[in-house]
Amino acid sequence: MTKNEFLRLLFAELGNLPREEVKKAMAYYSATLDDRMEDGMSEEEAVQSLGEVREIAQEILQNLPLNVLMKSRIQLGKKRLSALQWVLIVCGSPLWLSLAATILAVLLSVYAVIWSAIASLYAGLLALGLCGTAGLAGSIMLIFINGPITGGMFAGIAIACAGLFLIALSPVVGLSKGLVRASAWIGKKTKRMLFPKKGRE
Fold first, then answer.
1. Fewer Cβ atoms within 10 Å of its own Cβ: the N or the C terminal residue of the chain?
2. Residue 142 sits in which domain range?
3. pTM here?
4. Rounded to whole angstroms, how far apart are CA atoms 121 and 171?
5. How many structural domains is the chain composed of?
6. pLDDT tens string for the chain (201 positions)?
7. 161 with 131: CB under 8 angstroms?
């Protein structure tokens, strides 16, 4: 496959996207092919090294913001609708608008819960760390002000907080990464619902 053939197929796969996004993708892959040919690859080898056109197009779709995909999907739907379909959509708008609003609300709620959980985890971790460091500094002052018993009690509490901070640090980081991956997974699934992967013809 030549460079022009590759770009023509890629353009066909991305034809439903906004013009700006298509131009960016075409320019990027055209420059990539030129660079690889300058490095010594033949035209066919450079094209082959990029992989399947459908897979490249799907990867581009998955990396686009959700609002861009939604806009593209709506515009594509408008082009394909007949007059009868428009009448049915208008008549059924109370139903599908409420369903769409419900689905959107659920997705936003899931995202809010995930990021709230991440914020809460790090807030608790930060509180333990501050309690440990500030408590140790304060316990030294309390030893001179209120005596060694009071200062020692505060030092013990501070050491316990510092220990909990160290124990919780790794699990909190791991859990937050898992929550971020879950958030990304939900976004990808939503994009695949909007733009399902095409089968080979």
1. C
2. 99-194
3. 0.46
4. 10
5. 2
6. 888 888 899 888 877 777 787 888 889 989 999 998 898 889 889 889 988 888 888 787 777 766 655 555 555 454 454 554 445 555 665 666 677 678 778 877 887 888 888 889 899 999 988 988 888 888 888 888 888 888 888 889 889 988 998 898 888 888 888 888 887 787 777 766 655 555 444
7. yes
